[in-house]
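ingest -> validate -> predict -> emit
validate: passed (alphabet ok, no gaps, 214 aa)
predict: started
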Amino acid sequence: MDSTLRISEIFYSLQGETNTVGLPTVFIRLTGCPLRCVYCDTAYAFTGGEKLTLRQILDKVEGFNTRYVTVTGGEPLAQPGCNTLMIALLDAGYQVSLETSGALDVSGVDPRVVKVMDLKTPASGEMQRNLHANIEHLTARDQVKFVIADDADYLWAKQQLIEHRLAERCQTLFSPVMGAISATQLADKILADQLPVRFQIQLHKYLWDDARGK
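emit:
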């Protein structure tokens, strides 16, 4: 276990999103991201960080009393050692989820990992980076997330939902960009259109605002 990864932070908090929202979780935030989404709230993870071995990372995770681990970024798959890290966590008995932008190939991700893939909407400024071939590698235990900033984003996300039959393939999440579209407005749209999606807000931001490490 002498492989190293560059880590921005490892912290313990409540899962703020996805279908495990509210569960105590260890977050491993890898440094680096090839995308520059307009609404990004983790730009501090683009650079810097600390090089840690797999053993050091596992030791830190073990210090928290939870079986849930989320590997996030930045874009965690941008680091070649990401898959090795997730396999090591799985083999140690953790339930592992991966938060990925959807711009990098997910075909090599261990099938035991729950993939939470963000399809970039028009307002993100990075829609052209979506790797739609990734959709074929999603299963019923995985999730697709749409972060929605305005009406155009909503209509685009709705189109993707139908075109790729996402509700039949995996869980689909619609989330509002805080400060751009109200949570109530998005919820009303989902109900009016009777969409088979899970509405979510970023729970951690309501609890701790934008505090880093939460």
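The first helix runs from residue 54 to 62.
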